[in-house]
Amino acid sequence: MHPNALLELATDLLHQVLQFQAPADRVVSDFFRTHRELGSRERHSLAETTYGVLRQRLLFQHLAQSGKGEMERRLVLLGWQGNEGFLRAALSEQEQQWLEQVKAVDRTALPAKLRHNLPEWLAEPLEAALGEDFWPLVDSLNQAAPLDLRVNTFKAKREDVQAALKAGGIDAEITPHSPWGLRVQGKPTLNKVDAFNRGEIEVQDEGSQLLALLADAKRGEMVVDFCAGAGGKTLALGASMRNTGRLYAFDTSGHRLAALKPRLARSGLSNVYPIQIAHERDDRIKRLAGKIDRVLVDAPCSGLGTLRRNPDMKWRQSPQSVEELKVKQAAILASAARLLKPGGRLVYATCSLLDGENEGIATAFSEAHAKDFTPLPAVQALEKAHAGDAASLVRGDYLRLWPHRHGTDGFFAAVWERR
Asked: Is 351 a catalytic residue?
């Protein structure tokens, strides 16, 4: 494709993404569906350029004020993640000179908000919580996440899968904390990998694996994944149960549960029952009240722990949307808690970095349900489930994962037992 044509497509794609009408990954995949003529290298350049701009939007918009022409084109030039020679071939002499000038700007001397590229409402609580650790977090959020895999222990052993991947030219390291995980650098095409097609591995961030590990689901139990989504944690729970007992996967989205079906077929699990519910007070939930051994609530949240993968989240969320989510989180947790039988375990989790969605919700639940539920220190549950270096994963009683400290997405979890 002619360099200028590719640059025009990149500008068009960025223009669509910056409307923030839909998640960036969906906009990108829809765009590629309409432009089937793009090869894999071209798609890669367009996608990575888009994400690069989303990560450093405030900085790039500041730098782009000095140039001429369409704003989105200038942002694409600043964020270009492809062949440099290819880019030069598409630029006018004026654009080349401008780019040289902008690249010479000393970025370390710029105001903090142009260096951290976070909205103020998000930067302030994170800086307050982390102190000097704030800037390492910012750096980690601007890096692409590695690819984490969970070995389906119902079908295979981790070391056997690691060896099979190596034989196929994919180097995978054992994850430091999850006993089920492998970490791969780069982006191998998994649907061409035998272990993937045999259902021996699934894509799942190590942090997400630890959430399933906290539930500690056992053989023959009745278990509920309350907000199952596309089912990454559901599959991990089912493997923990060795394909026995009953595992209910609830979600309000039939579309998300449909995405679980092919993964379920590959996994070899037959103990999973996906159920679409209308809301957290659905009658189908009421029928199971007091009968369940383990409930995992991976609550709908701001998703700000996944900024390495979804940098658009920081621009799509707002203080108002987070307040609305907190009301929903408290209601879902209270409803899910009713399912547990005496001695049962409840896990509340988010992929948020904000105390309000995390400790705030957990503390309020503990206070409101002091008669029925005893908080269980996360470190105790992690050690029992054979997580590596469990003490480094917690803050107080809670699991607290950070990208810059643990190499995972940002996750939180609290655990209780029903008296």
From this structure: yes
